[in-house]
Amino acid sequence: MAKAYANNPDLNAARAALRAIDENVTIAKSAMRPQVNGVLEANATRTIFDKRLCNGQLIGGRCFGGSFNQNDTFASSYGVSVSQQIFDGFQTLNNVRSAEANVLANREALRAQEISILLAAVESYANIARDQQIVSIRKENLAFLREQLNASEARLQVGEGTRTDVSLAEAELAEAQSLLVTANAQLKQSEAVYFQIVGDAPKGIRQPSPARRGLPGSLDQAVATSMRENPNIRSAERSVDSAGYDVKSAEGAMLPGVSLQGDVYRSVNGSTSTNDNVNASITARVTVPIYQGGAEHGRIRQAKERLGQQRILVDSARLEVQQTVISAHTQLEAAHAAISAYQAQIDAANLALSGVVEERNVGQRTTLDVLTAQQNVLDARENLVLAQRTAVVASYSLLASMGQLTVAGQGLDVAEYRAEEHYEAVKDKWFGLRTVDGR
Question: pTM, whole model, 2 decimals?
Fold first, then answer.
């Protein structure tokens, strides 16, 4: 789990996505900050006269310092324009609050993905442990069936067996070889999934035990904890907050707005004048919205419907989490009961197999009886392995549904990613192109 937490690319991509969402707060705050623009203008004008007129000095029928039919002028200026929004109907304030709530919602969504990756790591580990044991069991079964085939052939040679016994042993041996090939293929698939999730080749895999740390004392306690701590529920609740602020922001478009704008320009040596002029102005503007085609009304209704949608999604998330908790808790209890039953079945099946083999040796049983008894042992051992895997995955699934399958909750030896550090670093930045990590 620690390796998956540090190396999984999907998890690292989700963290990068959250860092991008953090910037929405800075973007929302920019609407109440001054907007400064440098302006450079150049203007060239040519006037062509309909009549032959001299725009210079007419001496002796000749036009000096101009022309008879056109006039050229050139002017340029440069300056600075500064605008500041004073009041916008609380739209910016509510946009900032919405962005902050959205950051918190996505922070919970990231925690949900972290839990999902940790659970996937548990599943992949448990799957390899399961497949390794099944491969080992089937190898032992293959060796046992080879011994039975040899015994059947020896009994046939001394006249104590039949060709049917040999054929039965050969058929079971061929099926066992096929099952072993299938088990090896499944093991390789599980190892590939493990490498994808954990980012490292599986080594030293042993049969894991079901989770103990953080497990609830009862189903009611598990459900209550999940309602408080499950990140999917908390993310949905934060999304309701964000949608509520979006409604207020949309309603702000119906309120008046106040803004200031200051301009300073310098005109440089126009062709009509040799003097440079400096012009400065400041403008205060109050805008009272009266009617904008109904768009603002549509946006308000739209925002209210989205708020209602988010409230419904909270209920949906709670029901889904409750179902997941009950399912995991039930599977865990059933797996524990199955493990005890299969262990008893294995003991009984092994005793029965030993007895059948001895009875076959004295002619009271047939080879078919031996093969049937061996199959019972094989099925019981494989079912035990499957039940152990189910117990492990169900216990960690229960923790995941409760929101407890975390680095801190499981005491993992890995540095925990703290999303709030990036948020605090960028939420009030006024400028800068580099990201927090220097890119």
Answer: 0.85
